[in-house]
Design brief:
By secondary structure, the chain is α+β, with helices and mostly antiparallel strands. The protein has 14 helices and 11 strands. Helix 8 crosses helix 9. It is elongated and about 120 Å long. The protein binds zinc ion. Zinc ion binds next to helix 5.
Length: 466
């Protein structure tokens, strides 16, 4: 392998060294220092971390939210649930979602999130949530609180369930403050995940899903320094599976259909933790598909998409233009990253089959087409075109065709154009040489080249004796 190739690989990776010093701060979605320190009894490494050096938190406008005094009157899970919808996104998620429905249990503060393509799907998800509570928790929802959104207007359904539907007054969202605050918290964490990974906005849905997964495991004072997960499930959550969102990952390829010299792993990006499955949700950098695998090696301080979006600007959080190219993903190579810190999730040596649902095959192109680069180099006409009126076919309205570009202050091309000619006449005009052919001996003898041509012709006639 040539040194040039190694150098090229080095230029295609983006490593963030400060992840090493704030690993759990990154893995947990950039929590504030206090809730992070609360985890030190289960994650000893956080004692050695300091998120004061984090460059992502200020970008995400993440600040330590003051926890409200509990005004809850609920005494057990599902006495009261808060519901709200946020959206639409400026850019649809990978699965075409534009909204998300948030459901917060008042007693445990556990949050469920559903990505919606449109608001009309709210009814289906609410009804499914009622079934989930009855089946999985053997409980019944007593009261549902929401704003006045028409999507929550299901009076007949509430009546059949014996549920009280509490509505906040018009234009007083503070009456629905629990879920409003949770929205703010979710968006803060989701933004930090988006910014740390440098992923485009199509991945915002995955950022939101991961944010909720993390928020449910963070210890909060309002729950006496326990997590929503622990209060709801009566057991501590596991943190060992958490990895840095958006980092470079290598998923083991499947034994079947793998030849001796096929790669043993494929480069991916971590997109979160699929609900109800033991494994990691990954984005295949080569095939642009989403799949789940348990056999993954992570490089948690390398973010492949940072090459496409190295600097965060206002434009970076605006809707993306229509993709134009498919093969402009950052180049990745496992050889380059072998020397970098990595962590493995080899929970099971056997590979996890791919998810093959339609939503997993995504026509996503994560690359934003770059504006065409305009060279500052002065362009010169090739030598073989010096005798032709090449510049006269350019539009005179094109500022790039100005005479100064060719170095001639007032060239003919700046005032004369052949653009108004028909195609046939334009081709004819371009075939005419800029040299004027003399019509008499008197004119020809004044030009050295014609004088030389005449002498050559005379010598040829003499040699031929003609
Ligand atoms: Zn941070």
């Amino acid at each position: 392998m040539s040194n040039h190739f190694i150098t090229h690989l080095a230029s295609t990776s983006f490593s963030v060294n400060f992840v090493d010093n704030n690993l759990w701060h990154y893995r947990l979605g950039h929590p504030a220092e206090f809730p992070l320190k609360l985890l030190s009894h289960v994650i000893s490494q956080v004692l050695h971390e300091s998120n004061k050096t984090c460059s992502i938190c200020p970008l995400a406008k993440q600040h330590c939210l003051s926890f409200p005094h509990s005004t809850s009157t609920s005494t057990q899970p599902f006495d009261l649930i808060h519901c709200d919808i946020w959206g639409p996104f400026s850019t649809k998620s990978l699965t075409g979602s534009s909204y998300f429905l948030t459901i917060v249990d008042d007693h445990t503060r556990f949050t469920w999130i559903h990505l919606l393509e449109n608001k009309s799907q709210t009814r289906t998800h609410i009804q499914a949530f009622f079934n989930l509570v009855e089946t999985q928790f053997n409980a019944k929802i007593n009261t549902l609180r929401s704003d006045n959104g028409a999507e929550f207007n299901m009076n007949h359904f509430y009546a059949t369930k014996g549920v009280i539907h509490q509505l906040s007054c018009v234009e007083t969202p503070q009456q629905n403050s629990t879920v409003e605050r949770q929205h703010q918290h979710i968006l803060n964490v989701a933004r930090s995940l988006l910014f740390q990974s440098h992923l485009p906005l199509q991945f915002l849905g995955d950022c939101i899903l991961t944010a909720v997964h993390l928020i449910n495991q963070i210890l909060i004072p309002i729950l006496q320094n326990t997590s929503p997960y622990e209060v709801l499930f009566k057991s501590s959550p596991s943190y060992s599976h958490l990895r840095v969102f958006g980092c470079l990952s290598y998923a083991n390829t499947f034994l079947r259909n793998r030849h001796k010299f096929d790669p043993r792993a494929k480069p991916c990006i971590l997109l979160g933790y699929p609900y109800g499955m033991k494994g990691y949700k990954l984005y295949d950098l080569n095939l642009h598909t989403v799949f789940v695998s348990r056999d993954v090696v992570f490089h948690e301080n390398i973010f492949p998409f940072a090459l496409k979006y190295p600097v965060f600007t206002t434009d970076s959080v605006l809707p993306l233009p229509v993709p134009m190219h498919e093969s402009t993903l950052p180049l990745l190579d496992p050889l380059l990253t072998n020397s970098l810190p990595s962590s493995s999730s080899n929970q099971n040596s056997t590979s996890e089959p791919c998810i093959s649902s339609a939503s997993d095959i995504l026509p996503l192109e994560p690359c934003i087409p770059q504006p065409s680069r305009k060279s500052s180099r002065v362009k010169h006409t090739p030598g073989y075109l010096h005798d032709y009126h090449c510049h006269l076919t350019k539009s005179t309205s094109d500022p790039t065709s100005s005479s100064t570009a060719s170095g001639i202050p007032y060239s003919l091309s700046s005032v004369l154009s052949y653009d108004h000619l028909s195609s046939s006449k334009k081709f004819f005009s371009l075939s005419v040489s800029v040299l004027v052919e003399p019509t008499s001996y008197t004119q020809a003898v004044k030009h050295e080249e014609w004088h030389e041509a005449m002498n050559t012709k005379i010598k040829a006639l003499e040699l031929n004796k003609t």
